[in-house]
Amino acid sequence: MNAEHQRVKLNDGHFIPVLGFGTYTPEEVPKSKTMEAVKLAIDAGFRHIDTAYSYQVEEEVGLAIQSKIEDGTLKRDDIFLTSKLWCTFHHPDLVQQNLERSLEKLNLDYVDLYLIHYPVPMKPGEELFPTDEHGNSIFDKVDLCATWEAMEKCKDAGLAKSIGVSNFNRRQLEMILNKPGLKYKPVCNQVECHVYLNQNKLLDFCKSKDIVLVAYSAMGTQRPKRWVDSNAPVLLNDPVLCAMAKKHNRSPAQIALRYHLQRGIVTLAQSYKEKEIRENIQAFEFQLPLEDMKVLNELNRDYRYAPAEFIAGHPNYPFSDES
User: Fold this and answer.
1) Would you say residue 173 lies in a domain?
2) How many helices (H) and strands (E) would you count in the chain?
């Protein structure tokens, strides 16, 4: 089954492909590899591409999409493109500016989905990670609801077809949902989610509010040196996952992705290798029986690969709450 036909409806009426291709690129990886990987992903059948201003690869993502439009592989309407508002642009008067910067880099007129990357505002400016002389993050005070109102204006302006959030906990979602004069609900909440962090409670809450949960690090993580503990467990080496992969004649990555898809979670996959990219999209080709889903559910250990320690000192730090 081709990925472009596997879509779910968002609460604003638009549709999102359930399997997406992630483009976060660690500092140690050349950005040119991202451009080649996006082309490979499109050729393999991916039609949902996820990027962000802070990944600093929007230009490469845009070039890859443009080249596939020019060679007749697809039209702009065939691609669902997500980008994200960075923490240093939370001020309401900076939100559209950040989106316009992203659109310029992507060479696109609109994004299909625009997300608040983290619920934590940082000092405005050109630095992605502003710090003081002691290396501590410099935060800002901005009402999340005011940032959301500016996101709504981006949707009204046609710069983003849908708007949502990322890395929000239940409390922060409720803050937006209960905002007086709310015009648009977030269509999704993109969070770290995998068999070691299955997010069952947050998933149930989001489903109850007609908000789609989107999973990043669904297969574990690329283990970028800057953000992930080098001693973190390698999820795709998990013996239970590997045994199940052998049983179904699939890869551990395919099992990890299929687990999410069957839970109704929109799932992001990432690789730079053509073989793996093609394998990942084959997660549509099989079903896991209920007993296997239960076994995978029991692997949960509430383990977070990406605790975002750079925002840990802020009152809005999202990962202190249970869900």
Assistant:
1) yes
2) 10, 10
Residue 220 within any structural domain of the chain: yes
The CATH number covering residue 195 comes to 3.20.20.100
Alpha-carbon span 53 to 102, nearest angstrom: 6
How far apart CA 167 and CA 152 sit, in angstroms, is 19
Phi-psi region of 159 (alpha: psi -120 to 50; beta: other; left: phi over 0): alpha
HEC readout, 186-220: CCEEEEECECCECCHHHHHHHHHCCCEEEEECCCC
- pLDDT tens-digit series, residues 287-306: 999 999 999 999 999 999 99
Which positions are catalytic? 55
Q: What is the distance between the alpha carbons of residues 272 and 23, in angstroms, rounded to a whole number? A: 10
Angle of CA points 175, 177, 182, to nearest 5° = 110
What's the rounded mean pLDDT across residues 90-97?
98
* 220 in Cβ contact with 227 (< 8 Å): no
> Is the residue at 242 inside a domain?
no
d(CA 174, CA 255): 32
Token pair recorded at residue 133: 């002389």
Q: Which domain holds residue 97?
A: 3-230+264-282
Does residue 104 lie within any of the structural domains?
Answer: yes
Computed from CA positions of residues 307, 308, 313, 319, in that sequence, does the dihedral angle turn out positive or negative?
negative
CA dist., res. 115 & res. 86, Å (int): 9
The tokens describing 37, both together, are 């990987």
Calculate Rg over the CA atoms of the chain.
19
The number of distinct structural domains making up the chain is: 1
Task: Enter the pTM of the model.
Answer: 0.96
Inter-CA distances, 215 with 62, 199, 234, Å: 23, 9, 17
The per-residue pLDDT for range 29-76, each reduced to its tens digit, is 899 999 999 999 999 999 999 999 999 999 999 999 999 999 999 999
